[in-house]
Amino acid sequence: xxxxxxxxxxxxxxxxxxxxxxxxxxxxxxxxxxxxxxxxxxxxxxxxxxxxxxxxxxxxxxxxxxxxxxxxxxxxxxxxxxxxxxxxxxxxxxxxxxxxxxxxxxxxxxxxxxxxxxxxxxxxxxxxxxxxxxxxxxxxxxxxxxxxxxxxxxxxxxxxxxxxxxxxxxxxxxxxxxxxxxx
Length: 183
Description:
Layout: H1 2-17, H2 26-35, H3 37-51, H4 53-71, H5 79-107, H6 113-135, H7 144-159, H8 175-182
Helix pairs in contact: 1-5, 1-6, 1-7, 3-4, 3-5, 4-5, 4-7, 5-6
């Protein structure tokens, strides 16, 4: 759960802050980046009920990471393709971010939920702090930032398969209950 929030913040702000490097008009791209968050956030409400937290979280992380990794192989003279892939990646990461708020709260037992969610939020802030620094790595090679923004959600998505599903289950009150029922 810490990794989800860290990676979501890292990639979310990494894509948002590098909107000028995709090759199209920066204002139009920023408008589309903002508009794509509306269906991503509202769509999560229904998807979480239908498919569950674990499947949604891992799918959106893998999709967002895959889009960023594909961007590294697209030539710079195809800015429409790059921007389209970045918008899909931003959609997936925004949906994953929304999912991670609910999922992280449901994973912790009540007795430590406040502390756990606070630590998850702290790890997200660290990801947000690091993302502009990763963007600076493009002076060494233009593909490095997107490779990092793509590989980290893929790794987190794969690790997501290790977590339990929380949809339709009662929230745990104590540590002993959480150990017995989830693991």
